[in-house]
Amino acid sequence: MSTEVEVTLRVDGTPHRLTVDVRTTLLDALRERLGNTSAKKGCDHGQCGACTVLLNGRRVNSCLALAVAHDGAEIVTAAGLALDGELHPMQRAFIRHDAFQCGYCTPGQIVSAVAMLAEAEAGWPSAVTMGEPAGVGSGGGDGPTVGTVTDDEVRERMSGNLCRCAAYANIVPAIQEVARR
Amino acid sequence: MRTFRYERSSSVSGAVALLAEAPHGAFLGGGTNLVDLMKLGVAQPDLLVDVRRLVSDRVEELPGGGVRIGAGTPNSECAAHPLVRQRYPMVSQALLSGASGQLRNLATTAGNLLQRTRCPYFQDITTACNKREPGTGCSAIEGHHRDLAILGTSPECVATHPSDLAVALAALDATVRTHGPGGERVISMTELHRLPGPEPQRDTVLQHGELITAIDLPPAPFATRSHFRKVRDRASYAFALVAVAAAIDLADGVVRDVRIALGGVAHKPWRAYRAEELLRGGPADEERFRQAAEAELADARPMPGNAFKVPLARNTLVATLLDLAGGPR
Amino acid sequence: MTTPVPAIGQPLDRFDGAEKVRGLAPYAFEHPVEHPVYLFAVQSTIAVGRITAIDCSQASARPGVLAVLTHQNAPRLSTDNGELRTLQSDEVTFRGQIVGGVIAETSEIARDAAGLVRMDYEERPHNVDLRGEVPGHRERLKVPDEVLPIFPMDTSEGDVDAALASAAVRVDSRYSTPWYTHNALEPHTTIACWTGDGFTLRLSTQGVTGIQAAVAGAFRLDPSRVRVISPHVGGAFGSKVYPRADVVLAAMAARLVPGRPVKFALTRQQTFSQTGYRPPTFQRVRLGAGSDGRLVAIEHNAIEQTSKIRQFAEHSTRATPSMYAAPNRRTQQWVAELDVPTPTIMRAPGEASGMFALESAMDELAIACDLDPIELRIRNEPQVHPHFQLPFSSRNLVACLQEGARRFGWEPRDPTPRARRDGGWLIGTGVAAATYPVLRLPGSKATIRVGPDGRYLVLIAAVDIGTGTRTALTQVAADALQVDIEQVDLRLGDSTYPPAAEEGASAGITSWGAAIHEAADQLRQRLTTEHGGTVPADGLEVTADTPDNPYLKQYAMHSFGAQFAEVRVNERTGEIRVPRQLGVFACGRIVNPKTARSQLLGGMTWGLSMALHEQSVLDLRFGHVVNHDLAQYHISSNADVGAIEVHWIEEDDPYVNPMRTKGVGEIGIVGAAAAIANAVYHATGVRIRDLPITLDKLLPGDRPGSEVGG
Questions:
Q1: Residue ranges of the FAD-binding PCMH-type domain (chain B) (predicted)?
Q2: Which among A59, A66, A68 has the least Cβ separation from residue B105?
Q3: Is C416 in CB contact (< 8 Å) with chain A?
């Protein structure tokens, strides 16, 4: 039984043809086969968000996606958000707000934040938008779904990215700075 | 992770046929739970049939006011769809209270319903578990069972079903359309998942190789007044300790009709028929809500580590009904 | 020559920021290597016993498997450290112990094959139950060895029992804290390569010098044959200080495949048994006071656990003798040796657990005395260090409490529980004090080299685990050299640089910074005296040790702080939210206000996580942590964290070190959980003495119709 398959992945704008074990996740394909270590392995089970990448434009946990199932996919990592070495506004905001310490969850946070703002912009609701009563701020409520996002919205929408250094209180204003542009 | 054969098919019937010949094979959707379990050695399929691009990934309106959700619809798109948000807000709320933005983008609607319990012993192949390996015993009953079931348990298993979506769908009398080796059929959401009984290894009534193709939500005009309330140990990104999905139809302070299901309390979404029965035709007040909640939970058989779920479920149900009764519209 | 703008005090962006936000800063496992092999660990499935048979045939038969390591074929090591005696015998001393390893061409193959290694055991009974050791088993408990020489493990002054017996007001409460797991987002990883006569180890560690010594010793190599590199570390919090079995296993594997780099990453699940943890504690605090709140007696006892292979004790009662004036004081500590993995350092080791108990008890005393808890603490402020009877080099606890009260809006506060409500949520506020000693770890040197181009190169084998060391030490160096920071390059994270103490105990700036400061002083002096102020053509290099601090015997040196929290508790469900935390700290001079604030913020959020979420659940029957992943072991998520304010008191302490800094990494967590527990009491009237404060503890289960705390 053959356990190796050929797949094509377009990563940060560059196409790659590679042979992988059917068991290889997108995350391991990036890190161990393509030498792109921007996305990180924190838990390998979709429980921390450090591996977040854009998969065909949407944020996903790359540790739970098998490479073989995503042949032909377009993947963007945090490295790819910085075109030609120019940092993405979200990356600059993270630096300015010191929204990270060890930096290990950071590429995932940044990819997630960029995609999250696009989701909010597209009118996608969150648990807070839909009336979740248990936020830490005003107590939640019916926030607007298009345009600005409240701090509680950002917190809820970013909860899939754990930060053990606990830079959350800097991450939220960093994202808000970009959101309010 | 054991190695496996990976296949796609150009048709649903082709995919079903592929799996029919592989007793240890599995369908692959978003993979968010299956790949997770394969890494842990809990799931060891020798064939994965990728159905992600095979079944519909769209939400459509049905004649008569219902809505059909394609089985491949990502959780995030389903939650954001205007038809779902407007007609069945608690379905959106249930989806959005589950997992994370990233996982919701990857996970499919059918996959959400078919995810396995997060009982810690089920997920750890070094401990006994009747669900994972029938006959080995249940490590949870005398172990760590804080998150586990209080209703409908068996001496063999006290697992809970982890899906929030399933709870909202069970409350709404949704139906599941499947395509299996024996053809197509329609299963009520309240019948899809089973209680563990002596066979906890079976989560659902689906046969091997039976593929969910769509979920149908029946017209439910009063479901616009519905709410999904999830209580958990973190403010977000955590499984339910207790969840309540409820929709209520009120007229002049009297409950004309009501739908309730509880999550986090049983091996399946727990449709609260007894509470619904008690509430119908009665006053929409706290006393009646409490009586209904207590009646529903009268058969609860908690363990020492999860006894709190009984008052928690009662209080959460009462609070949710009060919110709905007093809320706008 | 113009005097450059002082770098210390500048809120500089961290220097590695641009790399980190793109994911380009390389962590240990990410170093590009040619033809790597992958290692996966095999763990014991019993807690205590002996391996009686091993069957590797299935694993070895898997295509791509290169070798299977077990105690039967592992190299024999030379070490007294039980933590490092990996695969040295057939004995199993805790569940999850590494009993083998599979080396294969890919990570997928290695992991699959590891699952095929069959071990038979002869199992013996185990004891992992610390709670069972608390009542009446004192003969089995030991007084642990001292952790830091200057702090005696147990202290006793006056007659505590007599003072308590005659005190007008008494508090006698028992507290517990659970087993905490660090869960740095980067799991422990290593790339090990046997180079023919030694090792190159790239790993995530808090101390390259310590790892170098340990590995060299165990493999009987000269330390110069072991190079340890740790360029970036994805969080550590104490879990990456001491070398453990994972490093040994990777090195052993490297010996088996010479020339091929061995990549080894623990899974998240494995970190729960392999990387140490904060030991659970059972504590008792007895306070006696006059009706005016003035303490006459303080007693604080703690029982915790260690393993049977190596003793590690957190000094949970360490802070108590430094806090409040009371003529009669006693602290006592015991440790139970159980069949568990060895605990280790975790952020604010000792203070985090111990100050939860003491500062909760102080809140209980305030209520018993009908005094504001801030006023109670002010009334018990000591003139000199209560135990050492030395003056404090600086002590600004009262200033922190008062500044915090003003900023938080503490007054007016009705101390009555359940007095404030908002839409079904009970609201409460709480306060607690914080402290952490100023520590200096031995064994650091720094080299500074100046070239004729006027650029300064600073070399020290320190590491930056995310604290901002790289940035802050460069600021220290620039000011000590009296040059512009742009002229300074600092390199760290490599054992080929001068040795450095491990990153820990908030001692980085004090230990490494003082060595850099000393080297800079000497360099400037030699430039002036020997070279007329001009850099010679071939440059000049100076290496210096951390100098002794003559004031250590004259002053007690501590940081202090005040923690405030506002909590909301849902009346029906018991759900707890913390919309607001505020901390005011007095920790000396702040090198970099931006990164220091982040350290304190992180610490306070750790306190929130400790108060509400964290707990490693042990299954006594099997002896392992059951909730061993990030879905089940909850750390605070973004949605759990509300508004957090961090402030500090200007403090200029000339005695602590040449930089006048006190360290900021630990104190942020100290007292934070107590402030939240005290606020929960204020909100609900329910005193939670056993962490974490989960909703079930606020939900009365046996009274139908009742609500939270009612």
A1: 1-222
A2: A59
A3: no
Token pair of C203 as six digits: 């790993």
Task: Say whether C314 is catalytic.
Answer: no
Q: If 0-12 CB within 10 Å is exposed, 13-18 middle and 19+ buried, where does residue A83 land?
A: exposed
pLDDT value of position A142? 40
Structure tokens at C37: 């092999």
Asked if the Cβ–Cβ distance from A60 to B93 is below 8 Å, we say no
Q: Note the pLDDT of residue C137.
A: 57
* C-alpha radius of gyration, chain A, whole number: 17
Asked whether residue C500 falls in the same domain as residue C592, the answer is: no
Chain C, nearest residue to A31 by Cα: C30
Asked if C701's CB is within 8 angstroms of B310's CB, the reply is yes
* Residue C140: inside a domain: no
From residue A181, alpha-carbon distances to A82, A111, A122, A146, A168 in Å are: 18, 18, 16, 14, 21
The domain boundary, picked from C521, C548, C575, lies at C548
Question: Which residues of chain A make contact with B28, given a CB cutoff of 8 A?
Answer: 66, 69
Q: Which residues of B touch C613 (CB under 8 A)?
A: 233-234
C353 touches chain A (CB under 8 A): no
Helix (H) or strand (E) segment spanning residue C363: helix C351-369
**Smallest Cα distance from C233 to chain A, Å:** 6
Kindly list the domain boundaries of chain B, sorted by start residue: 225-326
Per-residue model confidence (pLDDT) at position C616: 98
Closest approach of chain B CAs to the CA of C573, in angstroms? 6
Architecture of domain B225-326: 2-Layer Sandwich (3.30)
pLDDT confidence tier of residue C143, bands split at 50, 70 and 90: confident
A4-81 has which CATH code?
A: 3.10.20.30
Predicted pLDDT at A133: 53
Strand bridging mode C49-55 / C91-92: antiparallel
Q: Looking at the structure, do residues C415 and C487 belong to the same domain, yes or no?
A: no
In terms of domains, do C435 and C581 share one?
Answer: yes
Residue C702 pLDDT grade (very low, low, confident, very high; cuts 50, 70, 90): very low
Residues C646-662: tens digit of each pLDDT: 999 999 999 999 999 99
Look at residue A143 in the predicted model and tell me its pLDDT.
41
How sure is the predictor about C709, in pLDDT bands with cuts at 50, 70 and 90?
A: very low
Q: What's at B271, amino acid-wise?
A: R
What pLDDT is stored for residue C142 in this prediction? 82
Range of the domain at C243: 31-125+182-274
Indicate which CATH number applies to the domain containing C531: 3.30.365.10
Residues 6+ apart with CB under 8 A from C692: C178, C610, C611, C612, C613, C614, C615
Residue C171 domain-assigned (yes or no): no
Taking the domain A83-179, which CATH number applies? 1.10.150.120
Judged against a pLDDT cut of 80, whether residue B286 lies above it is answered with yes
Q: Which of B234, B312, B318 sits opposite C699 (nearest CB)?
A: B312
Contact criterion met (CB < 8 Å) for A165 and C186: no
| Domain end call among C246, C274, C302 | C274
CB < 8 Å to C30, chain A: 31, 37
